[in-house]
Amino acid sequence: MPLSRYSPPGPSSRRRPRAAVAATVALATALGVLAGAPGPATATPPAGTGPVVTRAGLDPHLVAGRGADVDFVEQEAENATTDGEVIGPDRTAYTLPAEASGRSAVRLTPGRYVEFVLPRAANAITVRYSIPDAPRGGGITAPLDVAVNDRRVRTMTLTSQYAWLYNQYPFSNDPTAGLLHPDWWITECSCVPAATTPYPSIPTPFRPSHFYDEQRLLLGRTYRAGDRIRLTAPAGSNAAWTVIDLLDSELVGPPRVRLRAANVLAFGADPTGRRDSAAALDRAIAFARRVDVPVYLPPGTYQVNRHIVVDDVTIEGAGNWYTIVKGREVALPTPAPDGSVHTGVGFYGRSAAEGGSRNVHLSGFAIEGDVRERIDTDQVNAIGGAMSDSTIDGLHLRHTKVGIWFDGPMTNVRVTDTIIVDQIADGLNFHTGVTDSLVAHTFVRNTGDDGLAMWSEKVGNARNRFDHNTVQSPVLANGIALYGGTDLTVSHNLVADPVREGSAIQVGSRFGAQPFTGRLLITGNTTARAGTYELNWKIGLGAIWFYALDRDIDATVDVIGDSYLDNTYNAIMLVSDWPVKDLHSITGVRFQDVRVDGTGTSVLSARAAGSASLRNVDARNVGAVGVNNCGSFNFPATGSEFALTDLGGNDGGWLAPWQLPNTITCEDRPPVVSPPPPSRW
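Above: the chain sequence. Below: its structure as tokens.
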């Protein structure tokens, strides 16, 4: 989602900043970690300790029934045996721990290792890691030895070519670059540099971020539960350090074979990846449509450096571990009509202006792009265009700008059992008039913007659902974001570890979106370690936050059965922008059967006019006053402009009668008290 100018919704700063930024201390912390500053003591679990399995860094019992059903098992490096250093926990933006799952990781210098015990049989692993950038940007490569039971079986080649962004939006690959926008307000100097005399000193690298990448590896055979997977940074590595965040292990089944199909090999596709196979795929698709059979991509790597346009066709791979469609980003000789200056690998429906595509079914393959910079006009997404009455199932998408970006109007698309990782921008976005569509059991990690979004720009989205998905570590913005729309549902998702300028779930009247209408249902979700520090506003956001910037939020909004765990600041925030605080309100939000386990500050923070009701909202380990009610900061004698209705059953002592209905309890920036880890209720 493009960033936009906004102003702090509090009384202490009324300038117009651009994007949230890190304070100088945060940058110093980041540089200390990146330069190899000493970390905490090495972590070695007690002898006989079994493997620690987590989901989004949490005890799986805390998130039962929520998030995506996936085939892999997650293990955090900080819970494994290592002679390296544990870094973190830390939630400060622009640091390696903050972008790690669970906010901790293990740092290996050459010769050091981290060792995991397999919790169940596996023949494949995924390693999430970070290594340094090249001194002038562009990335490096470095080896990582993989051993099982002390016997080396593979050497992975890690790369930082798809990591390491710097500077202001839309970011740079150059760590030495000066400010991209010297006319924007920045926190580092509390000034607009171009309007400041003398010009402030801005250290470089400026705001490093997007540190992590991940790689998958087939081990060549199946290993048993209890076998030990050791990852070692070799003594001769050219990487000064290697940070290991986690290991996912999986038992991958054999390749799927489709006999009655248009096999792309028969049309000249090259499964070695040496020759471009785009024209062969086009021929296979044309033939398959004529004779009404699916297109089949056998195991292999297929080089494709442009869009494959799909309409009324089924394309199946042998499984996303076996069939990989991979391409380079290619500069266009002249910009395309849509503003793109590059093209790259992607499967695109026809544009909505051309009538869109229908009856497209994509399954069982991976798409790997080559996108290393953010250019918002570029159509270099893994899946794009408009596809009605279509399905996307079992894909693995990485290194594109956005995993799936649909530009409607379009209707009835289902995205299921798909993995979207290491994106420069969003994971998935339903943009403009997408209706009656579903994203379910999809896993998203390490996006450069919103993990899952519905954006009703120009034309409203309607009747869409995000259900049983997992979103981890969005580097920028939110895990799940809704920008306008009608009758939308966000249900049974697991969202963890947003890093900056957003949180786990946002309901936002912003980015020129159409209004929210009908019923917005947010139910059965769990968030963890959410609520980033908004560095221009200088306040902490809620795990779920409602933001009235462009217009009122006055639809029927029901938040039912959510669990907000280990909140960095507030669990719930309702906020309006300072210049429009007396124009826009948030009214009638209903919270029911919600559990809050741990807040750094309040359970609910109101920084807007409006109202909400609460029934059976239980909270414990609350760090500040239960309700921080500032309203819209006019502080009238009649009480806050935001009113709460207690419908009963709100246990834990956080909602006292004296706070109701609209007592002003405003502490603009309360001190933060770190809560204990969440536990079973």
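Helices lie at 24-34, 96-99, 278-291.
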